[in-house]
Amino acid sequence: MSGAPFRLASLDAGHDRTAFNSDSEPLNRYLREQATQDVRRRVAACFVALADGSRIAGYYTLASASLLLADLPASTVKKLPRYPTVPAVRMGRLAVDQAFKSQGLGGALLADALDRAARSEIAAFALMVDAKDEAAAAFYRHHGFIALPDSPLTLFLPLATVLRS
Ligand SMILES: CC(C)(COP(=O)(O)OP(=O)(O)OC[C@H]1O[C@@H](n2cnc3c(N)ncnc32)[C@H](O)[C@@H]1OP(=O)(O)O)[C@@H](O)C(=O)NCCC(=O)NCCS
């Protein structure tokens, strides 16, 4: 990653959430108003990249999820057991502050999420994401994610791929 060094941490009350300003207002509002509550209720884990001490430069969330086998591409299904669903980890949100865009931070946060999901003791077949629009889906495809055949804004990356790389 070029530019300023970032420190990755779990979101906590000491981090400054108010100044965060990505291109997506819903993602800014989520960090400001909802993230700490979701963490407290254990419906999401939230990880932040910190610049200059407590300033949040980017964040993402992870939570448990599942993928229906019937929704996956045939080439993936053929390598899986015939269960109705497979376990997954969902990266529900990912955003980088405008001041830190295009410096590799989005890619670094994605790599951190993949690494955390792949190294968990609780098995998950894939990291999945719900891209908010086509530009976000292009970002994930750029990083090797595969779109579900019938829902192109839902993408996944098998975690065995991450462990092999
Ligand atoms: C999408 C987002 C997270 C990217 O963050 P970023 O820090 O600017 O991205 P990076 O600098 O890490 O880019 C990493 C790589 O992805 C590529 N990339 C970035 N945006 C892309 C896009 N929309 N489509 C295709 N590739 C893209 C970059 O060219 C770069 O490629 P390289 O590693 O081969 O040089 C950021 O723009 C953002 O917060 N957008 C608003 C919220 C959003 O769309 N979130 C997506 C999840 S819904």
From TrEMBL:
The organism's superkingdom is given as Bacteria
Keywords tagged on the record:
Acyltransferase, Repressor, Toxin-antitoxin system, Transferase
Which portions of this protein are annotated as coiled-coil regions? none
Name the reaction it catalyses.
glycyl-tRNA(Gly) + acetyl-CoA = N-acetylglycyl-tRNA(Gly) + CoA + H(+)
Q: Which residues cross the membrane?
A: none
Q: Which InterPro entries does this entry report, sorted A to Z?
A: Acyl_CoA_acyltransferase, GNAT_dom
- Any Pfam family hit: Acetyltransf_1
| Residue span(s) of domain N-acetyltransferase | 26-164
A molecular function (GO) held by this record is: acyltransferase activity, transferring groups other than amino-acyl groups
The entry's protein name is Acetyltransferase (GNAT) family protein
Species whose genome carries this gene: Acidovorax soli
